[in-house]
Design goal:
Layout (H helix, E strand, L loop, with lengths): L1 H21 L3 E12 L3 E12 L4 E10 L2 E5 L2 E20 L5 E17 L6 E18 L4 E12 L7 E12 L1
Antiparallel strand pairs: 1-2, 1-9, 2-3, 3-5, 4-5, 5-6, 6-7, 7-8, 8-9
Length: 177
């Protein structure tokens, strides 16, 4: 009987601890407008699924796509666009007594497809590559479920289409479940 009581007590402690940790796990969806500055400049959008594990740490998977930009060169006009997907880790630093504003730091990895075509229209090419991303920004909790955020990211690429880095600026909204 003592073993049964001890087992029930241990199960209750584990169940209580699991339910306490479950309240810290917050999944969310996000949508961002992005502006990317590289050797060309493109506007785009990003959608993401993420999780905040506590008020200091979270992760996010994303898909991002840009429009096209035309760059004039000696040979004519070249056209560029980017498509990316990847994973970012987020670090949050809540500020103030209410903690509705947080400083945000990000680090992640992206798989990029840079599409370009040259002026004659016959030479279309897509290059695939990997980039490492570091970012910083701010997030404001409008309500318990809705947040707005602004971020800057610097991406180190592996020489995709002659690029060695990209600067990205984004603003967006996040909905917590």
């Amino acid at each position: 009987m003592n073993k049964t009581l001890a087992l029930m007590a241990a199960a209750s402690v584990v169940a209580f601890a699991a339910s306490a940790n479950a309240t810290e796990y917050t999944p969310y969806v996000a949508a961002d407008y992005t502006y990317t500055d590289a050797t060309f400049e493109v506007n785009g959008g990003k959608i993401a699924l993420g999780t905040e594990y506590n008020k200091y740490f979270g992760t996010e998977i994303f898909y991002q796509r840009t429009g096209s930009d035309r760059v004039h060169s000696q040979n004519g006009t070249d056209e560029f666009s980017i498509q990316s997907y990847g994973l970012d880790a987020y670090g949050y630093l809540p500020l103030g007594c209410d903690q509705v504003v947080s400083l945000v730091g990000t680090a992640g990895i992206a798989f990029d497809d840079v599409k370009y075509k040259f002026d004659d229209g016959t030479n279309r090419k897509t290059e695939h590559g990997l980039s490492y991303r570091l970012g910083a920004g701010v997030e404001y909790d409008v309500s318990e479920n809705v947040s707005v955020r602004a971020l800057y990211r610097y991406s180190f690429t592996d020489k995709i289409a002659g690029l060695d880095h990209m600067n990205e600026y984004s603003v967006g909204v996040k909905y917590n479940f």
